[in-house]
Amino acid sequence: MPLLNKTRARSAAHLHPAGPARDSSWPAARTALTAFFAVDGFLFASWVVRIPDVRAQVSASHSALGLALLCISAGAVATMALVGRLCVRYGSRPVTVGSLALLSLAVVLPAHTSSVTVLGGVLLLFGAGYGAANVAMNSAAVELVEELRRPVMPSFHAGYSLGGLLGAAAGGVLSGPLSTAWALALGGALGLLVTAAAGAVLLRAPWRAAAAAGRQTSAPGSTHPARHARVLVVLLGLTALLTAYGEGALADWATLHLTDDVKVSAGAAATGYATYAFAMTAGRLGGTWLAVRLGQTRVILVGGLTACLGMLVAAFAPTLGVALAGFVLVGLGLANIFPLAIARAGAVGGPQGVATASTLGYAGMLVGPPVIGFLADATSLPLALTTVAAAAALTGALALITRRRPTP
């Protein structure tokens, strides 16, 4: 497994920083990479808000649309491991630029499909671009985290969350005056523009950390360090999986829980996921500050317990206000667990570590909604949502386990 030589020697220092950042300024490379994360979230949200229109366009049943949407996940998962290897071979920054260009072009295509089969094929390409972008961007972010010697990974994911909120808002505003084809075309054009501008900055940035890419972390003939690193990456991937399980569950079931169980109107219920999303964005904006002052293990541990408490409150809330308070706690608690887990996986395993942990995390996003649905049918939706609380609590336990496994 390709690992990073210098990363291993220095990862403990930047994961548990003892002093201020090496450069207190906001480097152009960091701004450019944040722009990539933001446009990634923007493009995905631009597609999501147009799903009903595309469904009507191809005359898909619910089941057929579900199979077509599954192609996004299939394309992403199939691509992630390959992109990890490409990042090792060619560097994460050029792969980031290429991936976002592919995603920007692919987001335009669903508006021009005429059948479910063609839509599925287009969404495979879209998913490939989305998965590739997430592995490449996170790998580049890991390199920049090492360069700055500060745990700034949550700030990049805050960019993704902000981009998603802007994409959803813009999609809602433009749903009337613009057709699906024009809206997605403008989104794709914006993506290409940002890719060109931010890519020019990113590619010429002289990161010293990037020069270490592709080196081996273990001495020739030594297999124990590499094996230890793989185990640690898998544990961190499981942490990402448990977090993404909760994110996927809330995305699909929060609104229904408020309408069916809390008995509020559809308009009021729409505030549930929005509240959670805003809380997660706010939590990520403060994530670097928390990680520097508390340490990453404490942030993950406290975050998991906070999300666990919040989900229990929201699941059994008697009123909308109490449920929204619970969703705020869930958003704040889960906000920084995924980015910090991916950051450490990258520090330990390089781009392949990012790919492994991201693939496991994405699996959690896929598993969450159907598991909640199955359990809701068997018991009730509030009881099913308690599995999100259990998953959040387990992330805290994994934080303690990975802390006792020192970075090799």
Characterize the structure shown.
The protein has 408 residues and is mainly α. It contains 15 helices and no strands. The N terminus is likely disordered.
Give a short synopsis of this structure.
By secondary structure, the chain is mainly α.
Please tag this protein with its features.
single chain; 408 residues; Growth Hormone, Chain: A; 2 domains; 15 helices; 0% strand; disordered N terminus
Q: Helical content, roughly?
A: over 70%
What characterizes the major β-sheet?
Answer: none
CATH class of the largest domain: Mainly Alpha
Please report the total strand number as a whole number.
0
Identify the CATH homologous superfamily of the largest domain. MFS general substrate transporter like domains
- Using the 3D structure, state the CATH architecture of the largest domain: Up-down Bundle
Fraction of residues in β-strands: under 5%
Q: Could you tell me how far the N terminus lies from the C terminus, measured between alpha carbons in angstroms?
A: 14 Å
Q: For the CA atoms, what is the radius of gyration?
A: 20 Å
Order of helices and strands: HHHHHHHHHHHHHHH
User: What ranges have pLDDT less than 50 throughout 5 or more consecutive residues?
Assistant: 1-25, 209-222
What is the residue-mean pLDDT, rounded to a whole number?
84
Gross morphology: globular
